[in-house]
Amino acid sequence: MSGLDNKVGKLLRPEVLALSAYHVPDAKGYIKLDAMENPYSWPEDMVAEWLERLRGAEPNRYPDPACADLKAGLCQANGVPAGAELLLGNGSDEIIQIILMAVAGPEVTILAPEPTFVMYRQIAVSLGLRFVGVPLREADFGLDLDAMLAAIATHRPAVVFLAYPNNPTGNLFEAADIERILAAAPGLVVVDEAYAPYADASFMPRVLEFDNLVVMRTLSKLGLAGLRLGFLAGAGAWIGQFDKIRLPYNINVLTRISAEFALEKLPVLDGQVRCLLRDRAVLAASLAQFDGIRVYDSRANFILFKLLKHDAPQIFQALKAAGILVKNLHPAGGPLAQCLRVTVGTPEENQRFVEVLRALLG
Ligand SMILES: *Cc1c(COP(=O)(O)O)cnc(C)c1O
């Protein structure tokens, strides 16, 4: 070890040194079906109108720290109940970080079912918090309610994260199970609705019904991943405290103006979502026809599948060699062994993926 490595290793917390960085592969030139992006761009006249709106931006000034108009637009578009307040984040990733910074301390535990969105664990560990993952049922990736309730009783978590629908499995947990968890949890329960546009189920209308519930959403999976805008809805008592930790200018001027504009054009994005829902069904049906694949039900814009007769890492590499990028979940192990996750793309992209896969599965 060099002298510098030694210095770094001495100064930084061991949990930081032990982390591996969140790896994002270079996707240039690939059919990109790995990151739950909406594949559609905007019609040309809409792009022109957007650029015209951006003309009004003042990059020499700090951005608006309150974003009142944007929040009003988000509340309306997302059915946020009257009386609930919003916290905006640079993606919902930042909101996870804000929540965990607010509870961080010695002996504090964060809990989530697993497999789930990896940032809950990653951010908790980076802040020196204990993270408890409770295995989902292997058969269908549903919540193991008894195990969840037992873990909650044992570990008394400050925060429970529930991705609804879950990533990378794509399923929705039972609403009744989430109600039981809300009743049992001594701390906050974050229902993460990143895939709300595709799910047709939500706790948003009920966010004020439980005093320990907050609901998190993002514009990323709807079709605005590049803007980095997520939000948390809940009682002012929670949101006001979290807002103290938010850096004052976390929403930049280009994001604010672009998101306000996109919310005015919601029918365009909703139309894209309808196409993706239709194509999710087509893609799932195509995958289900293959012998040797188990397809999991999805309420999101991606599909998880397990290879029963082939090696997932090998198929992943062969897809990549054919110019198609999906997510290889095999390295996560456990119930995700031999699993790949494909994002729903355009009909042409989906078809190409299915054709290549067909050739590979022989
Ligand atoms: C993608 C994803 C997020 C992160 O969304 P950003 O707003 O882009 O940071 C959060 N939660 C889940 C479950 C996700 O899949």
Automatic annotation (TrEMBL):
It is an enzyme of class 2 (transferase). Keywords: Amino-acid biosynthesis, Aminotransferase, Histidine biosynthesis, Pyridoxal phosphate, Transferase. It comes from the Bacteria. Residues 30-357 form the Aminotransferase class I/classII large domain. The modification N6-(pyridoxal phosphate)lysine is found at K221. SUPFAM superfamilies: PLP-dependent transferases. NCBIfam families: hisC. This is Histidinol-phosphate aminotransferase. It comes from Methylomagnum ishizawai.
